[in-house]
Amino acid sequence: MAPILSVRDLEKTYDGGFQALKSVSLDISEGEVFALLGPNGAGKTTLISTICGLVRPTSGSIDVGGFDALKDFRAARQLIGLVPQEMPTAPFEMVADTVAFSRGLFGLKPDPALVESILKDLSLWDKRDNAIMSLSGGMKRRLLVAKALAHEPRLLFLDEPTAGVDVELRHDMWRIVGNLKERGVTIILTTHYIEEAEEMADRVGVINGGEIILVEDKAELMRKLGRKLLTLNLSEPLSALPASLAQYDLTLASDGTSLVYTYDTHAERTGITSLLTDLSSAGVRFQDLQTDQSSLEDIFVDLVKSG
């Protein structure tokens, strides 16, 4: 099955000489949720803006649903919904009217039932006759999503969808994304909140310095790069690791009060049993232990540092 979005060797260099995108290639499958992670200035928004036709690339190709986005812009853009970080909206417009108007911008016939359905899904129906200026910040963010869905896109871009909103709205947005995915909408989101990617994404891409440095299934990424730590709180401080424990990946705390053992949970043997036996033989006693699994945030930080 052909991907709904295929980007090949995409580059963008601005007039001042700054290269924001460097030979970016990416395929997105229909129906998936893809999280694009990267530090500030990495190229996330430039990549989205280029795919959506807001920025002209210097070179490369973009295929959306079988349409060349550079040669057949209208057909490609019809398939795309974009929820930007911020969008100026007419403050005196009514909520339902602005959603209906967004649909009309794509040359589609009015569909009051669809507008009603979208507003109800986003908990905006009760505000349908309210002026935009009367909405809270969270409601305005929901309205941006509603406007992006008005023309029934197959591919939805969410650029920092929960930046600056409270935790309740963030979780509500996660629910909305889940509902959209169930309806078959393909979603690409950029986020600074790693827990969003961990919660919602099927695959994760990391961009840094305008280059895609990794694309991986989320679960596989965490399996391959995630690490599990076993921390042993010692009964008595150690000044140095006994030579008999050199074979293990152990780190002794600076104050000598704890040992940290790093291991792979998917390995045939974790080595924990033999470690505990060798600790006892070396006369090292501990009073407590705990385990800690690395998160996607740990992995992301490590990737950016190494990149």
From TrEMBL:
Keyword Glycosyltransferase among record annotations: no
SMART domains, alphabetized: AAA (SM00382)
Protein origin, superkingdom: Bacteria
Ranges for domain ABC transporter: 5-234
SUPFAM superfamilies per UniProt: P-loop containing nucleoside triphosphate hydrolases
GO MF, one annotated term: ATP hydrolysis activity
Pfam families the record matches: ABC_tran
Family: Belongs to the ABC transporter superfamily.
Record-linked PANTHER family: ABC TRANSPORTER ATP-BINDING PROTEIN (PTHR42711)
This protein's name: ABC-2 type transport system ATP-binding protein
Organism, as annotated: Roseibium marinum
